[in-house]
Please model this.
Amino acid sequence: MSIEKANMNAIELRKPGAEFDLVMAQHTMPEPNNNELLVAIEYVALNHLDARMARDGFSQWEYPHILGLDAVGTVMKAGKGVFPKAGTRVLFNANLAQKGMLKEFAVVPNHAVCELPSEIAPEVAVILPNAGMAALLAIEKLKLEVGDSLAINSAQGAVAHFAIQYAKQKGAQVFAFAQKQHHKRLLKLGADFAFDCESDNVCDQVKREIGAGGFDCMLNTPGGESFIEDLKHLRFCGRMACLNGFGHIPEDLLFEKAPNIGVVSIGGAWLANNLCAQQHLSFMGQKLLSDVTSGQIKVPDIELIEFDAENVKNALASLLTSARQKRPVIKIEHD
Model:
C-alpha cells in the first residue's frame, strides 16, 4: 500500500446525539515523531463504549471527532531504532482523549502496541482490546478466589464474554444476568447459572440459588441506577467492579453492605497520562492474543462492515440494543 499521498479518508462525528451524525471527510496525512509509529489502519472494532459516547459526547472531545478505539494495522514508518519496525502488524487501544481510528492512517506511541501473531486473523484480534482488557482489569480488582460467587450484570455484552471465561479460570462460580436469547451462549462460555434479567421474579431466582446472603463479587457493566440494584445483591463486605460509573449510594445501603468498590477504566491510562498504565494495556493485549491463540479463550462472533458512514451509523445504533450478538468490525481497504 502507498503512503505517498497528502490526504486520507476518515469518518467524522460532527456532533454528539442519538442520530449519529457521521460523514466521510478528508484529513491531512499524519507524521510520526520520536517513539511513534505511522500505522495503516486495516480493521477497527466498534464497542458499546463507542456508541454511548457518540450519543452522549465526551468532555475532552472537540468536534468533528473521529470514533474508534480498537484497531489493527501495519506499521508503515518507524524512526531509527523504534520498534516494532515497518511491516509489522500491530494491535492497540487508542487514546480516548484524542481522535479515534476510523481513518486510513494513524500515528500511535510504540509502547502501547503489541505485535500480532500470524496464528490469529486481524479481524478477530481487533475485537480483543477494549472488552478483553476491561474484563482482565475487573477480574484483577475483584481479587477472585476459588469458590467465589460472581454475578455479572448485562452479561450479553463483550466484556462479560471475556469476564466469564477468565472468572472460571480463577475457579469462581459465575452467575450471568441477561435476556433469554443469550443464555445458551453464556452457559457454553462457562457461566454456571443464567438469570432472565427481564423476569419479574429475578430476585426470587437469585435467593433460590445462593440464599439471602448475596454474591461475593459483582461486575456491573451498565452503571447508573443498575449499580444500586446490584449492590443490593452483594454480600456484606463483598467486592464490586464497575465499568461505567454510578450515582449517589444511599447511606443506609452503603453501611449495610460496606462494599469494596473498584472502578475499571481502560481510557484512564491515557487520560491520566500514566506511562506504566499505557504499557500495561500492551501487556494485557499480549495476554489476550496468547490466550486466544492457544484456545484458552473464545472470542465473540464478528460481522465485517464496509468503511462507510452509513454502515458505521447503523452499527453504532445496533450496539445500543441488547439484541446484537456479533461484534461490528470496520474493514478499511487500502490501494
